[in-house]
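Q: What residues go here?
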């Protein structure tokens, strides 16, 4: 733990929404009297029927309900209720991949009309309340229309990141029985195009339930439209009404499904519901980022991930905010792009992932210092631990030493920020997520479940429910219970390691399960392994993470080939391509080592601990290898490590 502490800036202590005292008072009430606290917070939203039952939750047995007799509509809360005051205010500045392409400005009135049209098109295509709609779209305005249109009519969206392969897309479509997919002709990222419609065409033979594909024209690429199945969005939109009634939704009706990786098996469809989710993230957006009316807020996360769902879309809109949405990547056309966008739109709060910060730090300070960034008030990070060096660079070079940083720890399953500084209340420590959000009760336990008090390091659990918590895994509630609530019975186990320092501040140390965090993207080692063993020439595979300067973690794969197959550089290349094709570019192995054998216990369990050490070149710390069925395997792996490519 770095010893450095940056005290709250005096002006922030005075002026921010949440001062030290206010944080303490609100936090105390939120955990001592959650019913009163969240009943009050629910008033942030417009309810068709206000909730009278606030918290009805238990982690043993698992049953989570918030605001269960409340009725509302999320799209109404994000758009309609703002129209009177903010109809002509900007909702989104949309910035294209390349600065020379045309940008778009979308007001709340325009958002309303386009979302209504989208909703009417979905209805015409037969979509009804409760139906699952899969979105496979780039970061273009239409993805926000599509998500909000689903929310408007009570359909459940499942956004699949547009970098995933056809195979991965098909699996996610099938898991939630979607009959409709919304996509675009192509996506753009960093000057390259991604053939999204073609990927959908390739996926659908493996997802036979889909009978409609709604296609947004974006790049104008030549694509094939299948008669009776494929519909152009712009053609359908022209023929529908520009108004669509909202569907009243129970607070506990599902709002969306978002697939994320676990340590075993296929990705899980995490289900979030309407009322608690929106209440919580709306409060988080206002307090953690200290959003003030008229500020320009930019969360750089893609809508394919939870950070995008909560902070690119729903939370800012729920607060009537002005946001930036960006199609491209941090370093295209060059490493100044983020900072130029900040200057162009006078961004006040900027939120991104440590991996982007590290990559831009590597490009050198000039790309930053030649821009103004005077509009910036606050910086945020999420998605993975931020190393103190990157934190300091973000603070001093990007923020000129005057913008507080909020290092927000949370997860797809938590819906919103869980452990985070408040800029007017929390002293900052580079690398520490610091202090719990309202209603969040963290606890550290050892591997046997003993509670660790005071200064300690252990496994991070959360003791009680918070409104934005996921309610289930789609189609597999038992898996939800087993994954999160059985390791430490009656507690939500985060699968993250964590230290608490002498001041009571929390430092997330990273996953303690077999989930990798590669450039802020969650990836199950099991998913990469199963992609590898599905290759004809591969007999076995084991995947571990290793420290990577920019990505945080890199993907290191050990591959055992079928008997008689010769290892070669070409084959290594093919196998990496194979994983890329099976899952998507984000899963491409960084390093691959052929392994004649893998270290296993006598019962056949692969000893990943040893594989991790070898991947880290840390050969002197292998620990006890006497329990291996064949300890000589380890020597071979160490000797062969030069052969990885
Ligand atoms: C990691 C992203 C350290 C953590 C919002 C968690 C973090 C996983 C932080 C969830 C942070 C997220 N500091 N680690 N500020 N934020 N993580 O579901 O390991 O994509 O379990 O949600 O990212 O990733 P997910």
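A:
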């Amino acid at each position: 733990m770095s010893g450095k502490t940056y005290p709250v800036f005096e002006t922030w202590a005075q002026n921010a929404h949440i001062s030290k005292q206010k944080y303490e008072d609100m936090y105390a009430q939120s955990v001592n009297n959650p019913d009163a606290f969240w009943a009050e917070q629910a008033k942030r939203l417009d309810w068709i029927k206000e909730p009278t039952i606030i918290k009805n939750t238990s982690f043993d047995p698992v049953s989570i309900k918030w605001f269960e007799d409340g009725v509302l509509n999320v799209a109404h809360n994000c758009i309609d209720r703002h129209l009177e005051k903010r109809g002509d205010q900007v909702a989104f500045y949309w910035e294209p991949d390349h600065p020379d392409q045309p940008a778009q400005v979308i007001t709340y009135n325009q958002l309303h009309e386009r979302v209504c049209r989208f909703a009417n098109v979905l209805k015409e295509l037969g979509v009804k309340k409760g139906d699952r709609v899969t979105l496979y779209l780039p970061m273009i305005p239409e993805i926000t229309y599509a998500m909000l249109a689903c929310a408007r009519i009570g359909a459940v969206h499942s956004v699949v990141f547009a970098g995933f392969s056809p195979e991965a897309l098909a699996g996610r479509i099938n898991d939630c029985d979607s009959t409709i997919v919304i996509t675009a002709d192509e996506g753009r990222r960093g000057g390259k195009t991604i053939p999204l419609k073609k990927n959908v065409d390739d996926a659908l033979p493996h997802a036979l339930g889909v009978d409609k594909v709604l296609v947004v024209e974006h790049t104008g690429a030549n694509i094939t439209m299948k008669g009776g199945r494929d519909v152009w969005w712009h053609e359908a939109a022209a023929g529908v009404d520009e108004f669509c009634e909202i569907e009243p939704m129970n607070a506990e009706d599902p709002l969306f499904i978002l697939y994320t990786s676990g340590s075993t098996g296929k990705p899980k469809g995490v289900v979030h519901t309407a009322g608690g989710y929106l209440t919580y993230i709306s409060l988080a957006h206002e307090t953690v980022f200290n959003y003030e009316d008229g500020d320009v807020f930019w969360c750089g996360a893609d809508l394919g991930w939870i950070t995008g769902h909560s902070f690119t879309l729903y939370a800012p809109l729920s607060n009537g905010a002005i946001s930036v949405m960006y199609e491209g990547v941090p370093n295209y056309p060059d490493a100044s792009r983020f900072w130029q966008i900040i200057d162009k739109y006078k961004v006040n709060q900027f939120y991104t992932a440590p991996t982007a910060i590290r990559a831009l730090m590597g490009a050198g300070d000039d790309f930053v210092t030649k821009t103004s960034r005077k509009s910036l008030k606050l910086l945020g990070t999420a998605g993975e631990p931020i190393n103190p060096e990157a934190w300091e660079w973000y603070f001093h070079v990007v923020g000129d030493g005057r913008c507080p940083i909020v290092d927000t720890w949370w997860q797809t399953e938590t819906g919103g920020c869980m452990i985070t500084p408040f800029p007017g209340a929390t002293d900052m420590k580079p690398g520490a997520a610091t202090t719990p959000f309202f209603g969040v009760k963290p606890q550290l336990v050892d591997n046997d479940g003993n509670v660790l008090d005071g200064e300690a390091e252990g496994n991070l659990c959360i003791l009680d429910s918070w409104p934005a918590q996921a309610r289930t895994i789609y189609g597999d509630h038992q898996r939800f219970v087993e994954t999160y609530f059985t390791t430490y019975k009656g507690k939500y186990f985060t699968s993250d390691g964590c230290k608490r320092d002498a001041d009571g501040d929390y430092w997330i140390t990273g996953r303690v399960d077999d989930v990798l965090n590669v450039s802020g993207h969650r990836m199950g080692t099991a998913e990469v392994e199963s992609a590898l063993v599905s290759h004809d020439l591969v007999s076995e595979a084991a995947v571990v993470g290793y420290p990577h300067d920019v990505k945080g973690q890199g993907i290191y794969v050990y591959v055992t080939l079928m008997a008689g197959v010769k290892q070669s550089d070409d084959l290594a290349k093919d196998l990496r391509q194979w994983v890329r094709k099976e899952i998507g570019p984000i899963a491409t192995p960084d390093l691959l080592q052929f392994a004649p054998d893998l270290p296993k216990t006598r019962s056949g369990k692969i000893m990943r601990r040893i594989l991790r050490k070898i991947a880290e070149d840390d050969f002197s710390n292998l620990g006890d290898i006497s329990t291996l069925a064949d300890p000589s395997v380890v020597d071979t792996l160490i000797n062969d490590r030069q052969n990885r490519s």
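A: Context that may help when evaluating the design: The mean pLDDT is 96. The pocket of WTA is lined by residues 260, 305-307, 382-385, 407-412, 433, 494, 496, 508, 510-511, 517, 522 (CB under 6 Å).
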